[in-house]
């Protein structure tokens, strides 16, 4: 338990400003503020720290965090017409972080600095201060790095609720770092450092049970203010492009029923969820698609499967994404794990099930887990795991339920039969089918979590990255729980040697961060039956700027080649683990875009890594975007592979406009295409009444300038080409 530095703890505050003043009285003028990544930042409190230090040059503030969330901002006038109304509707009165606004405006005061260990992908590519102050670290090293960097204030958004008659706080969306760092901060306090921990309560934050629950005195200070109950940041689901749908489909074939799953945020994660649901709910369609692909069914059967998820999956992921909730609701994520090695081993072996029967007691006794003559410890064990009913009571030399008494001897057949008849529970208790470190997602995700009945919510355990991202927490237990784990993440590029680039560029620019990817890849090589699956789009860019993401070599690596395992592109699965360099090159060329296969082969031959007479089999020569579109076109016509498989906050008009505006941007990037499109747009005519809702939504119903007239015509052309409007 955290020891407060105040006379009474926790200290309660109704304003962030008064809390900040008290913090400075404790820690002094130099503040090093540690904040959770993503949703768990107490923005009003953070802004109060920022404003206080900004207004007082004799103070200093260093913020250490990750994934500082920002509302989307338009990059052009026409994008603003589309985006601003959407942002106002979806993000409402969400309070922005002042330090992010200052970073964007290059107005961060000299006495304030911000260091992050993970960026929103691409969000800080051209921001010098962010690039200069970035901290490269594994997610599991963050706690150590916070302490080493002198963090003396830890602040977090929390939920609050009465549970069984007592008031509790919940770390809710961010148990990830907090659970691991608090013991380190306790140790630092014992060494004489002045440290303050602060919670800011938010009533809309879902109350998560299990490891997320902490008593109020876990924190030194608590801020409660109804005016701070502004909209939680909720990024909307984005559309899933064709490449991600296919990569997600291939990845889903590598997931083994009865196993363990980790996925990340974004369109690829959504695609994996969609494909997994298709496998489970419409297996005939799923298997037909599999037959249409070039995927080797031997690989599918050996590594994953194509049948529905009868046993179900257990989710263990640093990020508990919205997709996992869809898998839970679909009955796919349902395999529970238990924090008891012998019990879990019996479940794994199929000797017992989650249903409690007379045989359950027999198996436990034969395995030596309980004694033939029950002890108090045995009865407590059986109680805890739900094998005995709640109202079974230990009564000295017997157990009883209501007025019925039974001896402690399980070897007495009559007594054993009576105990089984009257004392057994129905199902095992305290099982978990989802472990997560943090969550972030759309508003309906938070709403679902908040409204879940307690008995369902308790199947989800938010925990620390020290628990989820590695085996050091309890290697024997975690190896027993994490059967056939599939850790599925994304990369930007892969080299012909099998190294993967995920976080940055060879010129030193950081695109996102290492996060937990290295942890999961390394863990996949340590867990029996586990596999690391890294999904990489085969190409980036378009037209003359199209480039391969499978490269001969690259000057930066996130996952070194000796940790290679499985790479998936939209064209298939490359299994790399344990293979020779030549075999790895062949596997990767098979899943490369057809435009780049020959140059990759030529490079490998030139450098002696591929035999001179190697010929790529013809069946792998059809890796083109056009062939992919043709393959899925029929299914899309039947309603499969929708733009937003997990739902969306966009209206139908906004979906149409978004797609069409992307088309206009692509056209404008190609001068020749632009000229042709402009000519076509002024020749073709559409139904003005049908077009009116789109034009009104984007403010182009009554264009006033030549530029607006041009945009209107191009937009109508794109809407027609995309099938949203009919030509007259």
In short, what is this structure?
This protein is of the alpha/beta class and 728 residues long. The chain folds into 4 domains: 11-228, Glutaconate Coenzyme A-transferase (3-Layer(aba) Sandwich); 242-336 and 434-620, Acetyl-CoA hydrolase/transferase C-terminal domain (Glutaconate Coenzyme A-transferase), CATH 3.40.1080; 341-422, no CATH class; 652-721, no CATH class.
Descriptive notes:
The protein folds into four domains: 11-228, Glutaconate Coenzyme A-transferase, CATH 3.40.1080; 242-336 and 434-620, Glutaconate Coenzyme A-transferase; 341-422, no CATH class; 652-721, no CATH class. Helix content is 39%, strand content 14%. The chain has 28 helices and 25 strands. Strands 1, 2, 3, 4, 5, 6, 7, 8 and 9 form a nine-stranded mixed beta sheet that branches. Strands 16-15-11-10-17-20-24-25 form an eight-stranded mixed beta sheet, sandwiched between helices. Helix 25 (652-668) packs across helix 27 (688-698). Mean pLDDT is 94; it is low at 1-6.
Summary keywords:
globular, disordered N terminus, Glutaconate Coenzyme A-transferase, alpha/beta, 28 helices, nine-stranded mixed β-sheet
| Sheet of most strands | 9 strands, mixed
Could you give the count of β-strands?
A: 25
CATH class call of the largest domain: Alpha Beta
Q: How would the global form be characterised?
A: globular
Task: Indicate the proportion of strand residues.
Answer: 5-15%
Helix content bin = 25-40%
Question: Pairing-aware structural class of the strands and helices?
Answer: alpha/beta
Q: What is the fourth-level CATH superfamily of the largest domain?
A: Acetyl-CoA hydrolase/transferase C-terminal domain
Number of domains: 4
- The rounded distance between the terminal residues' Cα atoms is 73 Å
CATH architecture of the largest domain: 3-Layer(aba) Sandwich
């Amino acid at each position: 338990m955290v020891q407060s530095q105040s006379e009474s703890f926790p200290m309660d505050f109704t304003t962030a400003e008064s809390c900040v003043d008290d913090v400075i009285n404790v820690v002094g003028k130099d503040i090093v503020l540690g904040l959770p990544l993503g949703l768990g930042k107490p923005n009003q409190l953070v802004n109060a720290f920022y404003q206080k230090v900004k207004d007082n040059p004799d103070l200093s503030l260093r913020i250490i965090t990750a994934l500082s969330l920002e509302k989307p901002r338009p990059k052009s006038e026409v994008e603003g017409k589309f985006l601003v109304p959407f942002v106002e509707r979806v993000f409402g009165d969400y309070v922005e972080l002042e330090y992010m606004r200052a970073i964007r405006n290059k107005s961060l005061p000299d006495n304030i600095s911000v260091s992050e260990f993970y960026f929103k992908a691409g969000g800080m590519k051209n921001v010098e201060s962010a690039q200069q102050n970035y901290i490269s670290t594994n997610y599991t090293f963050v706690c150590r790095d916070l302490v080493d960097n002198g963090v003396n204030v830890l602040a977090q958004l929390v939920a609050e609720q009465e549970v069984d008659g007592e008031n509790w706080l919940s770390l809710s969306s961010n148990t990830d770092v907090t659970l691991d760092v608090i013991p380190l901060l306790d140790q630092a306090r014992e060494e004489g450092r002045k440290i303050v921990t602060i919670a800011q309560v938010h009533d809309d934050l879902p109350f998560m049970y299990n490891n997320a629950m902490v008593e109020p005195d876990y924190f030194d200070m608590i801020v409660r203010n109804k005016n701070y109950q502004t909209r939680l940041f909720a990024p909307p689901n984005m559309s899933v492009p064709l490449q991600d749908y296919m990569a997600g489909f291939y990845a889903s074939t590598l997931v083994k029923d009865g196993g363990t799953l980790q996925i990340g945020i974004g369109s690829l994660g959504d695609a994996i969820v969609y494909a997994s649901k298709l496998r489970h709910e419409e297996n005939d369609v799923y298997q037909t698609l599999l037959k249409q692909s070039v995927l080797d069914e031997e690989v599918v059967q050996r590594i994953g499967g194509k049948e529905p998820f009868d046993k179900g999956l257990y989710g263990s992921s640093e990020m508990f994404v919205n997709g996992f909730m869809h898998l839970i609701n679909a009955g796919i994520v349902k395999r529970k794990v238990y924090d008891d090695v012998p019990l879990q081993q019996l479940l794994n072996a199929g000797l017992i099930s989650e249903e409690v029967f007379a045989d359950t007691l027999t198996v436990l006794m034969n395995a030596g887990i309980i004694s033939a003559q029950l002890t108090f410890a045995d009865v407590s064990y059986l109680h805890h795991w739900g094998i005995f009913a709640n109202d079974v009571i230990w009564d000295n030399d017997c157990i009883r339920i209501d007025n019925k008494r039974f001896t402690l001897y399980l070897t007495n057949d009559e007594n054993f039969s009576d105990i089984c008849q009257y004392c057994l529970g129905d199902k095992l208790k305290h099982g978990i089918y989802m472990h997560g470190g943090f969550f972030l997602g759309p508003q309906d995700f938070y709403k679902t979590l908040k409204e879940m009945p307690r008995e369902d919510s308790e199947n989800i355990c938010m925990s620390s990255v020290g628990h989820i991202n590695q085996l050091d927490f309890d290697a024997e237990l975690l190896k027993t729980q994490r059967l056939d784990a599939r850790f599925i993440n994304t990369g930007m590029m892969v080299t012909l040697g099998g190294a993967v680039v995920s976080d940055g560029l060879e010129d030193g620019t950081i695109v996102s961060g290492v996060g937990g990817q290295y942890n999961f890849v390394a863990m996949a090589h340590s867990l029996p039956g586990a596999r690391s699956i890294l999904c990489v789009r085969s190409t980036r860019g378009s037209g003359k700027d199209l480039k391969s993401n499978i490269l001969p070599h690259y000057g930066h690596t996130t996952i070194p080649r000796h940790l290679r395992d499985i790479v998936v592109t939209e064209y298939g699965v490359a299994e790399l683990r344990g293979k020779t360099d030549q075999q790895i090159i062949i596997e990767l060329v098979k899943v490369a875009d057809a435009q780049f296969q020959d140059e990759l082969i030529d490079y490998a031959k030139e450098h002696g890594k591929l035999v001179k007479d190697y010929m790529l089999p013809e069946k792998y020569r059809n890796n083109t975007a056009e062939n992919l579109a043709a393959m899925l076109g029929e299914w899309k016509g039947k309603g499969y592979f929708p733009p937003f498989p997990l739902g969306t906050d966009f209206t139908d008009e906004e979906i149409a406009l978004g797609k069409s505006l992307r088309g206009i941007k692509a056209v404008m990037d190609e001068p020749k295409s632009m000229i042709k499109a402009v000519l076509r747009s002024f020749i073709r005519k559409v139904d003005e009444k049908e077009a009116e809702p789109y034009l009104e939504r984007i403010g182009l119903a009554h264009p006033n300038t030549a530029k607006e007239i041009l945009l209107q015509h191009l937009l109508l052309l794109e809407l027609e080409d995309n099938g949203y409007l009919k030509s007259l």
